[in-house]
Design a protein that fits this description.
217 residues; mainly alpha; transmembrane helix; transmembrane; Multi_antbiot-R_MarC; cell membrane
């Protein structure tokens, strides 16, 4: 990450893939029976958990790949494909990591109604920072050539956490102002941006796996 443009791409990708605005309806639904204190605690825990996931992925993600013998090029192709699939879901106005079926949704509703915390699962994982977000952080961590660049990547976790806390804290006003249509439009715009970034990540990985492709054209 040697240029300012390279430093911006990880943040844009993370904001697009996490997209806390798209999770606002889930947050409202899951916390409808919560007290104000429980709701505030859920907001704090979700934001902090999102930061932890991003920070851990940035700091030890590459070591885990090395442990399992996975090359970064292969991971870029796989991660890029995952990002592309997530972007397609977003273009269909679905949260990037939303794979929640009816049974899972009902189980979470029961959990929430009993007062159990839903901040980590499912709000943070997989709705906010699922596999696509983790893959993004690891891919960009590989591009870091200096310690300060890695620190910036971890710092983006703080930005995501703050965006999450803000979106969840203002969930009701956001839902009233934007409505379902407004949130869907925002999700589709984020999906379009993410699709372009996903293709770029995959192209970079394929270029490393098959150097001849880099020479074409």
């Amino acid at each position: 990450m040697s240029t300012s443009m390279d430093l911006i791409k990880p943040l844009v990708t993370l904001v697009a893939i996490v997209n806390p605005l798209a999770i606002v309806p889930f947050f409202i639904h899951y916390t409808q029976d919560y007290s104000d204190a429980q709701r505030k605690r859920t907001v704090r825990m979700s934001a902090f958990s999102a930061f932890v996931v991003i920070a851990v992925s940035a700091l030890i993600g590459l070591q885990l790949l090395s442990f399992f013998g996975i090359s970064i090029a292969s991971f870029q192709v796989g991660g890029g494909l995952l990002l592309l699939m997530s972007s397609i879901s977003m273009l269909n106005a679905q949260p990037a990591e939303s794979k929640t079926n009816v049974d899972e949704l009902r189980a979470v509703e029961v959990k929430a109604s009993m007062g159990a915390s839903i901040a980590v699962v499912p709000l943070t994982i997989p709705l906010l920072t699922g596999p696509a977000a983790i893959s993004t952080v690891v891919i960009y961590a590989d591009k870091a050539r200096h310690l300060w660049e890695l620190a910036v990547l971890v710092g983006y976790g703080v930005v995501v956490a703050l965006a999450t806390a803000l979106a969840f804290s203002l969930a009701q006003p956001i839902a009233r102002v934007l409505g379902k249509t407004g949130i869907n439009i925002m999700t589709r715009l984020m999906g379009l941006i993410l699709a372009a970034l996903a293709v770029e990540v995959m192209a970079d990985g394929l270029g490393k796996l098959f150097p001849i492709l880099s020479k074409v054209g």
